[in-house]
Design a protein that fits this description.
Radius of gyration: 21 Å
Distance between the termini: 32 Å
Number of helices: 11
Largest sheet: 9 strands, mixed
Number of strands: 21
Shape: globular
CATH topology: FAD/NAD(P)-binding domain
Length: 414
């Protein structure tokens, strides 16, 4: 069996990795270098404890309140485009406690074995920088802390071995001497991990090449229908034929699906980040600044901060005021960190968002030989291995143990 994977991000590379392990011939196609988009520009967290849908009770009303702030962590770029308005209305319908809890259960199920799958990849020789330090979440508001604690109680029921604890505000300065006094408290989870996402995509690319996966990089892919009715992919003037085509092109997925008259409900969510120098007196383990929605990831050669969520079109331009909001939020949580005079250059990444906050992993509405894997929001790295394994199961006809109707490509009205 031959399979073509369109997209060389974390999801596409994981799919190629597991498809090759399943014995199929695999070709990966992408116009950009592997891992050069959002798959390398993110916090690098593998976080079953934070595998929750973006649409949450109160999320959109909060975004509307923040619309006047140019550096707010959550914002919506207004548009009268009917598809944009339809997407936002569908997302609003999902911002209810019942739908949020249902989505949380689906994501917990999908991520339940992701840590083991990362371990299996490492044992197979996939090289990437990874850390097992606990994740500490800081809160300036005790109500927000309690709300998340309730979510963690639910996650604990679904994730084997997952543990967490509450850190009272008075104890924070003892355990984290670099944080500002007077915070409401913290939550610490055990069983999450952090990694360098660029190293992961490099490692997966190398492992795929080692196992015989073919790469066609540097040219756009176009799906077309052959005379016999089968789907094939044109890339760089060459026509590639396969039994199955997997579209894992992130926010560009609909551009690919348009070739077969299909589309999915997808919107770009822009995030920003900085890579800061390692310095004594700063965070030594992953931290999440809850109200600011900022992730902090200490790595071997840098400290990465990432955050913001901007709903809008596909636009990779950097808004420096928006990016600067990450840095200006830090003094609310830290005493003297970071001590930098000239901020480094910010980066951006576009996350593929769905109206219900769940990924799309399933067969195209138009063709049974085209599968779609996208819409992972901020969980692309975290859910890459289980998504890749699920795609391989679906392609080869094995029992797709993690396949839920909640992830189907046709679950939204278009």
């Amino acid at each position: 069996m031959k399979t073509i994977v369109i997209g060389a991000g974390a999801i596409g590379l994981s799919s190629a990795y597991y498809l090759r392990k399943a014995g199929t011939e695999v070709t990966v196609v992408d116009q950009a270098e592997p891992g050069s988009k959002a798959s390398a520009h993110n916090a690098g967290w593998v976080v079953p404890s934070m595998s929750v849908p973006v649409p949450a009770p109160g999320m959109l009303p909060q975004a509307l309140k923040w619309m006047t702030r140019r550096d707010s962590p959550l914002y919506v770029t207004p548009s009268l485009n009917p598809r944009f308005l339809g997407f936002m209305l569908e997302m609003l319908r999902n911002c209810t406690p019942v739908r949020f809890e249902a989505g949380l259960e689906v994501l917990a199920h999908l991520s339940s074995d992701t840590l083991q799958l990362f371990d299996d990849m490492a044992s197979d020789g996939v090289l990437f920088e990874s850390h097992t330090d606990p994740l500490t979440m800081l809160y300036t508001n005790s109500e927000n802390l309690q709300k998340h604690a309730t979510e963690l109680e639910e996650m604990e029921e679904h994730i084997p071995g997952f543990k967490w604890r509450t850190i009272p505000g008075n104890d924070l300065v003892n355990e984290c001497p670099f944080v500002r006094k007077g915070l409401a408290g913290g939550l610490q989870t055990f069983g999450d991990r952090s990694l360098d996402p660029a190293s992961l995509t490099r490692g997966l690319t190398a492992a795929c090449r080692r196992d015989g996966v073919d790469f066609r990089i540097g040219h756009p892919a176009k799906i077309r229908i052959a005379g016999n009715g089968s789907a094939e992919v044109e890339v760089g003037g060459e026509v590639l034929r396969a039994d199955k085509i997997v579209v894992a092109a992130g926010v560009w997925t609909n551009k690919i699906l348009a070739d077969i008259g299909d589309r999915v409900s997808l919107l770009s969510g822009k995030g920003y980040g900085y890579d800061l120098p390692l310095k004594a007196g700063g965070p030594q383990f992953p931290m999440y600044l809850a109200e600011a929605k900022v992730a902090i990831t200490p790595l071997s050669a840098k400290v990465r901060i990432a955050g913001t969520m901007g709903f809008g079109g596909i636009n990779e331009q950097i808004n420096r005021v928006r990016a600067q909001g990450l840095l200006t939020s830090l003094p609310r949580y830290f005493e003297d960190w970071p001590s930098i005079t000239t901020p480094p250059e910010p980066w951006t990444g576009l996350r593929p968002m769905t109206p219900d906050g769940l990924p799309i992993i399933g067969t195209s509405r138009k063709r049974s030989d085209v599968l779609i894997a996208t819409g992972h929001a901020m969980l692309g790295v975290s859910l890459a291995p289980p998504t890749g394994k699920l795609i391989a199961e679906m392609v080869t006809g094995e029992n797709a143990s993690r396949h839920l109707s909640s992830l189907a490509a046709d679950r939204f009205r278009l």
